[in-house]
Amino acid sequence: MVQSMRRLMLVWVAASAVACSDRNSATGPSGGNPAPMQTIVEVTAARVQTSPVVLEQSVAVTGGSFNDIRFRWQVPTGGEPVTGNLYILTQEYLGEASGVNPAMPGFLARSVRVEAGDYVFDSGVTLRGGTTYWFVTDRTVGFFSSQGDTDVYPGGDLYTAGLGDVFHRFYVINPSQRIDANFKLTGKVVPVQ
């Protein structure tokens, strides 16, 4: 009986150690990042509604690193749902809107789907703190932005490819004052190893 109790106790200790190591590991038991989703950056400035255009927004990521990335433009109620792809670049893109593709300079990732208004990226895509990224659409998006005379988010700028003709080159909107789209960037903290 004592021998059986010892074996049972050893099995329980071993199982507890495995469960604890899974909870504390970077991947956890399912292989995914067990950390909760959190907001990395969110801009909700004055609601200036703008006609659909092809967009680019630069975003400075601060703090640690993040994966399981999602990005959402704040679109008007009743407006067209977002479609197409969103690209993450490591450098500004000022080329033609028709040239938005994985061959762009600085290409990091392309969204894998749109889910409930969010562009969703492969879980392995990692954004690192202390780095600026550019999020670029390949389709037009109706969106809300800040006022033309206020830089509400000093960590980035809004670019468009022009109203009406989506094959114009990208440019910064109002370069003297800088405005920003309303957007939300979320992800999971990547544990430090």
List keywords for this structure.
193 residues; mainly beta; 2 domains; six-stranded antiparallel sheet; five-stranded antiparallel sheet; 1 helix; disordered N terminus
Question: Could you describe the 3D structure shown?
Answer:
The chain is mainly beta. The protein has 2 domains: 1-31; 38-189. It has 1 helix and 13 strands. The protein has a 6-stranded antiparallel β-sheet with strand order 6-5-9-3-11-12, with no helix packed on it.
How many strand segments? 13
Mean of pLDDT: 78
Count of discrete structural domains:
2
Strand content: 25-35%
Strand order of the largest sheet: 6-5-9-3-11-12
How is the biggest beta sheet arranged? 6 strands, antiparallel
**Element-by-element helix/strand order:** HEEEEEEEEEEEEE
Shape: globular
Radius of gyration: 22 Å
Please estimate the helix content. 10-25%
Q: What class do helices, strands and sheet pairing give?
A: mainly beta
Q: Number of helix segments?
A: 1
Query: How far apart are the first and last residues' alpha carbons, in Å?
Result: 43 Å
Contiguous runs where pLDDT drops below 50 for at least 5 residues: 1-30
How is the topology of this model organized?
Elements: H1 2-24, E1 38-43, E2 48-53, E3 55-61, E4 66-73, E5 86-89, E6 107-110, E7 113-115, E8 118-120, E9 131-137, E10 141-145, E11 158-160, E12 171-172, E13 183-189
Antiparallel strand pairs: 1-13, 2-10, 3-9, 3-11, 4-8, 4-13, 5-6, 5-9, 7-8, 11-12
